[in-house]
Amino acid sequence: MGLLSDPHCRRALSRLVLRLNTPLCLLSYLLGLGWFLALPLPPLAPRTYMSENAMGSTMVEETFGMGERALSYAREFAGHKKKAGGMPVAWLERTMWSLGLEVHRQPFTLTLPFPDETRERYMVKGTNVYGILRAPRASSTEALVLSVPCSPGTQNNQALGLMLALAAHFRGQIYWAKDIIFLVNEHDLLGMEAWLEAYHDINLTEVQSSGALGRAGAIQAAISLELSSDVVTSLDVGVEGLNGQLPNLDLLNLFHAFCQKNGLLCTIQGKLPRPEGDSLPAYAHSLQTLLLMVLAQASGRPRGDHGLFLRYRIEAITLRGINSFRQYKYDLTTLGKTLEGMFRKLNNLLERLHQSYFFYLLPSLSRFVSIGLYMPAFGFLILVLILKALDLWMKLSKGETGNAERLWDGDHGVREVEPRPGLLALVPPLVVCHAAGLALYFLPVLGQHVATQHFPVSEAEAVVLTLIAIYVAGMALPHNAHRALSGGGSDRGWMVLKLVALLYLALQLGCLALLNFSLGFILAATMVPAAAAVTPNGPRVLLGVLLVLGTPAVTLLLTIFLQRELEEAPAGLGEGWQLFLGALGEGLLQHHLYGSILYPFLALGAHPCWLLLWNVLCWK
Amino acid sequence: AVSHYRLFPKALGRLVSALGVRELHLALTQGFWRTQAWGQPPLQAPAGAELWVWFQPTVTDVDKAWKELSNILSGIFCASLNFIDSTNTVTPTASFKPLGLANGTDHHLLRYAVLPREVVCTENLTPWKKLLPCGSKAGLAVLLKAERLFHSSYHSQAVHIRPICRDASCLAVSWELRQTLTVVFDTFSSGQGKKDWSLFKMFSRTLTDACPLASQSKVYVDISPKNKEKELLEVTPPSASVHEAIVQGDKRTYAVYDLLSPSLFNTSRSLNVQLKWKRPQDSSELPIPILHAQRYVSGYGLQAGEISTLIYNTHPYRAFPVILLETVPWYLRLYVHTLTIITKGKENKPSYIHYQPAQDRRRPHLLEMLIQLPANSVTKITIQFERALLKWTEYPPDPNHGFYISSSVLSALVPSIVAMKDVDMEQSPLFTSLFPSSDGSSYFVRLYTEPLLVNLPTPDFSMPYNVICLTCTVVAVCYGSFYNLLTRTFHVEEPSRGGLAKRLANIIRKFRGVPPL
To answer: Are the beta carbons of A136 and B186 separated by less than 8 Å?
Structure first.
């Protein structure tokens, strides 16, 4: 404070910011990236620990021993599924009823905004079936959910078998304090969204569902199970939910604790546990896992059916059985015991899971990086924008005070009146850029029918191609509307515009990073250098390339390649492009079907902001 | 006033006379009656503790008597009834009528409270058993062993005190104390899916004798045939008599075992009633009650929400009215203008509404409505609310568990499907008093919906929370000065002329012709 109020120090500071601006920006940017790369290191990523008292100290003794019965249920289910050509609703209802559950069904219909070609869906009709195990002497105020998607083909039959066997086992126990809902959802996420909306009696999307529903109070936690083989070698856990929301870390700790107790091999992001020790391979492995998590979280796409629960403040994870070529296999009894243990611990909860972290990154299942430790990496990146904005602000205000001082010094000569661009000059570029954003948001879906009439493409292709066309066309818009206004072409004009764009970008990214750190960080890492460097006076081609590389669409393309690289399945150029097109279509669908914020954020926020910077580049 | 205590427990008798109680109904319940699966409840009670009392018109300060009464009852029954205070007490106008003799029904003499979080266990059962004339030493009460009674799906014990006529001429008034215990055993988990039961299996006891003080001691077993099929179930030992009654609009047949009849214990020394089903039951055979209801909280997030109540009338052709009583704690701020009642897609205007808004930390919301339920319909009642932010000392020990909203109460005269004839009072006093019918065509039902668990916005109460609070405070304090510094322009000020001495020195220096200091 003293530094700033003392004019000498102030002058020195401002001189420092002005003169050393570029080195400071560079340093800050590198520090940010460096900090991020250091996150998997042990001092920044401590071991996980159970915070919730009710799930902590005591271990339950699992008694589940119905692995064989689970397999026979699975076979029976497979037969009925094949016969019914879809979900065998009547068989499920009968079986659940005979297990002593209260059975309900929920039919739903939904029409997608445009056909989903990868999953071949357009007008979706389905039925969710669920059975409620009523806890004795409890008044249905709290519930737990075990869900299994009913997938086409032979997938997930074993998961369903295991669920029914668990239901049979749980029904005979007397210790339940929370109702348990056994849910079979059709059309994976669509069914889950329909069920959750009906259960909470709200209508966020256009899902139509009917039928009277049985309810069991506030759902405390949910586990979604996917399993397609009779034996497994490992269990993979999916954590990232819609919009990058994460479940409470204690749920993961619980899963990890039971995996260790039963000797199960558990993985996250499909990566094996980190090798012990502080060696370089261990670091590289952790970094890979961390980067995969960051990419998955940034995509805002739920990794499994659990992802939609998180909106309702229901802690949820997806467990996926993996059967690879490893030697040690585990049967369904072991998996059932693990699940039984988890449910009994969750049953013991007195409160909702709230003790542990909700914001974290996982370099492995046994280590975590908390929000306090990963935020500085983002902070350093944003600092670049702030420094640059400060630099522009001081340059602009110096010009002003310079004029003022000259006047004040009593220069009696006629002061040359430099035409000062008002804030009015900012209005045309702002309006044009946001109009481009609005077009990007609305036109692809609205214009799909027009596009299919005039071009030989399907609806889904039409949507994606329109999207790309509008995106590219945004760059070619006549960005010289400001010249119509007096004095728009001056240096001050672009400086003011860049100042606004930088602050706008910093604000957007700052808000985003609070909701979804990964997305904020990736966008900051790609957009910040170009945003800081852009000027109409420099080497325009170089800056143009830098700016284009920093645009969100290119970032998406690059992250797709990076992800495939990290998954050790590198994609070729053609495949990458196809994946890119698929990701665009999926992003749109995610927004319309589940309310993902990624697409509107990019179309209405990040892209217009980037166009402002493009505007700066094309100022002259 | 109660004058002698041969049968009537002294603790309750003195309470009744000292506090001017005219009628007292206390129910302690663990679990929720599943109307869909178990049918119409004989006597339902809301989860937790429920207490409603009519006071004598002579009582001047009803609130004080109510407070005192709940505290004394809390001691008698080892329940947390002392938590009944003005924030959960209401005075319903229409839902609760006196059940005994009453001169007037001035509802200001009525107090009603529910504690949905109350957990009922053995320590509540023991004092309840002690009120019986023989305790649990003899008679039917020997069956009431806590470890079996609480190994069940539903447990509800109640005490009802009311004034009744001493004889048919009704010249003198007697006090009636009725103790009821409703327990639902889950035979599914213990019997591998079969529903067979016996007294020994359920209570691990059998009956050997009647309480010597009892004038009547009977076991009734419902053996009503369903779907005209007689031979569905079998009861052993065969009962001496069969009682037929119309209960809740349904014709029921009961096998009666009279413990006072000497013939019962002739063959064996103890009575162990057993019931066997001849074939397994299907889900389709479950009777659907004419009136049932469901309640839930809809919406998500911690700011607003909606309480929805679904009331079903499954009667094929008769419409009937129902009184709905909602008590909502003050920390859910109800928006009454959002109250909607929809039946079959159309708005259903209630014919009577009594609404008493809440006062923060003083009293809860009370909403009573008389709603007509058309035949074969579902009525959906929704009302939106906003969650209040409590003061930090007002949160209970487990704030993230959520806050309970007590069950809403549905009272209705349900038209029966079979024609009812007035059962002779003298012949079966138990049934007429338990299941009264106002006229021949309908019977009274009081239903309770599920209690709700609602999460309020809750601070973290942990170290990071304190850190965040502190940081925010620091930032807030610094913000003003930073803003000030960043927006102000600074000019270097000319050094001041100095003090008086300096000025004098400068004047002298001026005279001397040397430059000033």
So the answer is: yes
pLDDT, averaged across chain A: 85
Q: How many CA atoms within 13 Å lie on the side-chain side of A304?
A: 27
Please judge whether A137 and B310 are an interchain contact, meaning their C-beta atoms are less than 8 angstroms apart. Answer: no
Q: Which residues pair with B293 in a beta bridge?
A: B311
Whole-angstrom distance, CA of residue A437 vs CA of residue A608: 6
Q: Report domain extents, chain B.
A: 1-185, 195-279, 291-454, 461-488
Phi-psi domain of A357 (left: phi exceeds 0; alpha: psi -120 through 50; beta: other) = beta
Q: Record the pTM.
A: 0.89
- Is the pLDDT at B281 greater than 70? The verdict is no
Reported ipTM: the value is 0.86
Q: Is the peptide bond before B237 cis (omega within 30 degrees of 0)?
A: yes
- Across the interface, of A100, A215, A355, the residue whose CB is closest to B294 is A215
pLDDT in tens, A281-334: 888 889 999 999 999 999 989 988 999 999 999 999 999 998 888 888 888 899
Instruction: Say whether residue A7 is in contact with chain B using an 8 A CB cutoff.
Output: yes
How close does chain A come to B420, measured CA to CA in Å? Answer: 32
User: A7 and B490: CB-CB below 8 Å?
Assistant: yes
Q: Which CATH number fits domain B291-454: 2.60.40.740, 2.30.30.100, 3.50.50.60, 2.40.50.140?
A: 2.60.40.740
Report which DSSP code applies to B297. E
pLDDT surpassing 80 at residue B279: no
Whether residue B189 and residue A171 make contact (CB cut-off 8 A), yes or no, is: yes
Between residues 48 and 107 of chain B, which touch chain A (CB distance below 8 Å)? Answer: none
CA distance A596 to chain B (A): 16
Closest residue in A to B121 (Cα–Cα): A137
Measured distance CA(A196)–CA(A411) in Å, rounded? 74
- pLDDT 10s digits, A141-185: 999 999 999 888 788 889 999 999 999 999 888 889 999 999 999
Q: Which of residues 441-460 of B touch A (CB under 8 A)?
A: 450-455, 458, 460
Structure tokens at B3: 């004058």
